[in-house]
Amino acid sequence: MIRMDINCDLGESYEAFLTGRDEEILDYVTSINIACGYHAGDHSIMHQTVRNAIRKHVHIGAHPGYPDREGFGRKNMVFSPAEIYDMMVYQVGALQAFVRVEKGTLHHVKPHGALYNQSANDQEKASAIVQAVYDLHPQLILYCLAGSQMAEIARDKGLQVYEEVFSDRRYHSDGTLVSRQEPNALIQTEEEMLKHVKGILTVKEVLSVQSQKIKIVAHTLCIHGDGPHALDFAKKIAALRQQLH
């Protein structure tokens, strides 16, 4: 059994658009990924989320995505590796500045949404992301999909990697996530979520949508902060984690 980091995507409100119960969720997770303004978030939300995380002693990560507010960063887009590198540096650099003025430490970087999924097993995109994180600071941890090519590229570069598994997403038998375009992509019930997470924490397995048990060796477990059950899931996962350890 492993002592799993529990992460959550936060800071995704902006202007008049409000989502999530961020401050409450901070009581039940060990790390967070803060939206950096492209897919969601803005300068004030970023700063406030950094302050709250430091106050509650939660590890801070940057959550850069595609420039896609309409699609919440979940729309596949076409960018060159050089453009991906630049958008990573731009977004993570902005969050780094807020962390610095609050005298905190940036712990990790986790790409968001379509950028995360499209780059997981694409060598050129993954390499651009890895190089950007390394150039920003070689001590930053990269959060990426468990078993992905990006994880291998990052380790070869010398970065520390947290391979990630999802508490509220279903998997194919090849270890990839079921697309959000599919009706069965999300785990909606508390009962199914707890069964799924318990399998990850105890035997390092998930049941795929093809009804196959697949091995998932991961260091961090994600809760999506914009999900309708995010706070309830976070409470239950924190309690389960404590119970198992």
From TrEMBL:
This is 5-oxoprolinase subunit PxpA. It comes from the Bacteria. It comes from Lysinibacillus pinottii. The lineage of its organism: Bacteria, Bacillati, Bacillota, Bacilli, Bacillales.
